[in-house]
Amino acid sequence: MSTSAPTPTEERDPKAAERPAEDLRQQVYDSPKEKLIKYALGACALVSVLTTLGIAAVLVIESIPFFQTVALTEFFGDTQWTPQFSEKHFGIWALLAGTLLVTVISAIVALPVGLASAIFISEYAPRWLRKTLKPSLELLAGVPTVVYGYFALTFVTPLLQAFIPGLGVYNALSAGIVVGIMIIPMVASLSEDALQAVPDSLTKAAYALGATKYEAVVRVNVPAAFSGIMASFILAVSRAIGETMIVTLAAGATPKATLDPTQSIQTMTAFIVQVSKGDTPQGTIVYQSIFAVGLVLFLITLALNIFANRVTLHYQEEY
User: Do 286 and 149 sit in the same domain of this protein?
Assistant: First the structure.
């Protein structure tokens, strides 16, 4: 069977035969249907960006009148937060201390438990158990936070009072533990996905060098998935910082610049809930303080997300 000889153009340019296929692909990409899909997807991506910018703009604009009345030196230098008292103080450190206390307790609970759960599901659990265990763990993420709040108030706090004499009904310890329980599924799910993304060839190479199962997991798989694990940690901590209902119900409403977990405290989100109930007239300094606190919370979350991206890019492994 004879074949046609290549044309002189194809002899000079070997890629000339590929150009018709490239032209056909370009025609498909330039079709009205493909352009419509591209623009629709771009618009969806743009919505999230514009929403974030809109939220930031509202917080900044509404916070300007507050900072025209309250100096930054008082806002960041005072340790008392009493905007609803006759003698008003606007020291954000009282709310920051409560937020930090709950976040640290929740991280102590969630990060090791979530990572251990992810390692077991990814590396040790048989396939049939993995298919059951991971969805069951992720069900915790679907429980309403108000239910977690009452769980902390009616179960965890009485349980802690049996071991800690004098523990009040409202305290940071109970709220922090339950917030940690709430974010365990986020840590476990994202860390398990990161571990699953590690190529099997790395594990097999470790076995070939004589490593045990534990050594392969600890010295190969976890370091290889470190960027994804760190991202899950920081995202979970960001979620804990922004939690509202649990701390509102279980931590109390007493702003204190304390790091004692047995004390009643108030977080930034709990203060926003307290003032946003409708009793505070708009335009007052108390109402404006909501946006000032929200702006600080927004900046903290933004900083954590930027840090998470930096860590992910720095430790990211490409296979």
Answer: yes
